[in-house]
Amino acid sequence: MGVRITLRSVAEAAGVSTAAVSYAFNRPDRLSSEMRSRILAVARELGYSGPDAAARSLRTGRANAIGVIFTTGLTYAFSDPYVLALLGGLAETLAHSRTSLVLIPFAPVVAGLSDAEVRESLDAVHRAVIDGAVADGLTDDHPAVRALSDRSLPLVRSSDTAAGRCVMIDDRQAGREIGRHLADLGHHEVAVVVSSPSEPGCAVTPADEATLYPYSRHRLAGIREALPAGARVRVVSGGNNADATGRLAATALLAAPDRPTAIAADSDVLAAAVVEVATVQGLRVGHDVSVTGFDDVPLAASTGLTTVRQPIHEKGRLMARMLLDPDNTPNRVTLPTELVVRSSTGPVPNR
Amino acid sequence: MGVRITLRSVAEAAGVSTAAVSYAFNRPDRLSSEMRSRILAVARELGYSGPDAAARSLRTGRANAIGVIFTTGLTYAFSDPYVLALLGGLAETLAHSRTSLVLIPFAPVVAGLSDAEVRESLDAVHRAVIDGAVADGLTDDHPAVRALSDRSLPLVRSSDTAAGRCVMIDDRQAGREIGRHLADLGHHEVAVVVSSPSEPGCAVTPADEATLYPYSRHRLAGIREALPAGARVRVVSGGNNADATGRLAATALLAAPDRPTAIAADSDVLAAAVVEVATVQGLRVGHDVSVTGFDDVPLAASTGLTTVRQPIHEKGRLMARMLLDPDNTPNRVTLPTELVVRSSTGPVPNR
DNA sequence: CCCTCTGTGTTAATCGTTTAACATCGTGCA
DNA sequence: TGCACGATGTTAAACGATTAACACAGAGGG
């Protein structure tokens, strides 16, 4: 009962070499069909269910799995429509090549990580049996990214990176489009809500800005570029991009005596939270205050959110293809974005 | 460049045994700190990033990962709130023990699977490097379940099963509660919408019923039991549980000349689709037609859906714990459910 | 009749680690 | 002085498979 059945035990029981057994499972054409079925019969009889996955991975060097790093906490991730769309895209491509998706949790960054936490998380990254990985939205110097490239695993990223593969969008350009749109409407008091580990609602100092997600930085830069010279841009933390933290940020922002006339959020989820809070406070979104989102997930359409559409699903599909078939895919791709104007933005109110 | 750095190369470069290098990475206390840091220095210098994952898995017999089987297509799965809640629960527990989640795609059953598809899917199951797996909603004789138990991997299921671990709900009892609720309201023309591979909207024959998901069967049985003797229950396919297929089923159902007065759906997603279609057709849900869902996902509250709440997140947490720590967890758990009455159900209209 | 070729099966090296068991060497204690 | 012991390294045997390279036999061709 306790003894494990291996390729060898089957071979001995059948009176053949281990090679034969291996071929019986992997290369039917290498064996006479008579021999093959005899071996399979013996295997079944012994309760052998095929070659061990780990051993096979070691020997062949292939894992038939690709990893995805999550730095936000998996539980949160499953509620983020952006993440879900990306995973959906990845999965779509992977399903066609019997490849699994390995979700690797990395300690979420909340006010800095203890060394121990980082070490534990890295351990998960090191132990993952995968052929490649996607790291979406992580900086070059994130420990997980480092660990992955140290393992010299194929890695695909979503931000521009010196070496290595990536599929990205032009965040800066997208930011400029948002900025121009708001500028055209006459806004010069705008708040940008970014996802950040710091307390939701609190201001993000220029020093902090360097620590933001790259995409946040680029979008922010774009917005600033497109706004007229006199415009004032304040940056506040939207927490971890969730509905709850978005509401906190919105509440802080709308309570300010000099409340902004426009609020540009880093994601649709955040923007929808802002809309919700504003509405509850009796503000007419698109009149009294304008709100923009990012991504154009389904939520955006139903909320009437002005946002920037990015082809998330396509991004996922492409990332997966790059990992599965590196020779027939480009190293770097920039996907198009598009400003989608809906009812959540309007001309600046005259007070 | 092409040559791979291994534990051995590091050992040779450092002039120590491979055991020492292994200890340097795994058991700091086994080495003098001086030796350890020397080894780590050499490793860094050589660009060695730690023991190989596959080799380590083979040797230790642990993968630090658990699998989840998806028979619905991963892309769909990421849009199903039930699945997401379950994954969230699993992830929550796993995050504490640096364990990854492996999402294993299995060919979705659409009008029967070809042998080749099954074989390919099984291959993914066999190749997954995992310590255990959860199979939610699959029958005992599903090929994936068989493959997993053949591998003699710890397996946790969501339906009652002779041997093996499971965390379930009393689907039959839940069905009875729905049935009783509808009966109390005077309904005897009820349609049950189940997720099924067959064409959305078409009738499910008694013969087909045997092929339904176990949970569907049990809920159906419960509903039938609780309805009065004269009641008529028709069963229709809701497709794969998605919004779109739910709408199709609803359209077919509401167009029928003898349209049911109550529609009990297998999931909130399906029920919400029914509500949507009914509303569009000018029917007042809760008056002209009653609709019930299942699960009580967030969507249900915002739709005003009468439904049965089940603790999905808790289910996930429990399943993960059962896999991680079998010795300190029960083999079988039944979680409580609760009928949540909202506005989507009401007394049968008098025509 | 010899030679090549195809179809089947075997031999044996290798993938990169982990870890029980053993060796060695001060050290503290009786 | 003698001895048990903790601390620190090493030896070497697995873990369970894959796959070149080789061997052999019968078929077919010249």
Defining key terms:
DNA-binding, Rossmann fold, 3 domains, alpha/beta, 15 helices, elongated, 434 Repressor (Amino-terminal Domain), homodimer, 351 residues, six-stranded parallel β-sheet
Q: How would the blueprint of this fold be written?
A:
The structure is a homodimer of 351-residue chains.
Chain A (H helix, E strand, L loop, with lengths): L6 H8 L3 H9 L6 H14 L6 H8 L4 E6 L3 H4 L3 H15 L4 E6 L9 H13 L4 E4 L7 H8 L4 E3 L7 E5 L1 H14 L4 E6 L11 H4 L4 H13 L5 E6 L5 H13 L6 E4 L2 H13 L9 E3 L5 H6 L3 E3 L2 H13 L7 E4 L2 E3 L11
Parallel strand pairs in A: 1-2, 1-3, 3-4, 4-5, 5-11, 6-7, 6-8, 8-9
Antiparallel strand pairs in A: 10-12
Helix pairs in contact in A: 1-2, 1-3, 2-3, 6-15, 7-8, 9-11, 12-13
Chain A binds a DNA duplex (30 and 30 nucleotides) through α2 and α4.
Structure explained in plain terms:
Two copies of one chain form a homodimer. Chain A has helices spanning 7-14, 18-26, 33-46, 53-60, 74-77, 81-95, 115-127, 143-150, 171-184, 206-209, 214-226, 243-255, 268-280, 298-303, 312-324; strands at 65-70, 100-105, 132-135, 155-157, 165-169, 189-194, 232-237, 262-265, 290-292, 307-309, 332-335, 338-340. Chain A has 15 helices and twelve strands. The model of chain A has no long low-confidence stretch (mean pLDDT 93). The termini of chain A are far apart. Chain A folds into three domains: 7-51, 434 Repressor (Amino-terminal Domain) (Orthogonal Bundle), CATH 1.10.260; 65-169 and 313-335, Response regulator (Rossmann fold); 171-310, 3-Layer(aba) Sandwich (Rossmann fold), CATH 3.40.50. In chain A, helix 8 (143-150) links the parallel strand 3 (132-135) and strand 4. In chain A, the strands form three sheets. Chain A has a six-stranded parallel β-sheet, sandwiched between helices. In chain A, strands 7-6-8-9 form a four-stranded parallel β-sheet, sandwiched between helices. Helices cover 44% and strands 15% of the residues of chain A. Chains A and B meet through helix 4, helix 5, helix 6, strand 2 and helix 7 of A and helix 4, helix 5, helix 6, strand 2 and helix 7 of B. Strand 2 of chain A pairs antiparallel with strand 2 (100-105) of chain B, so a sheet runs across the interface. Chain A binds a DNA duplex (30 and 30 nucleotides) through helix 2 and helix 4.
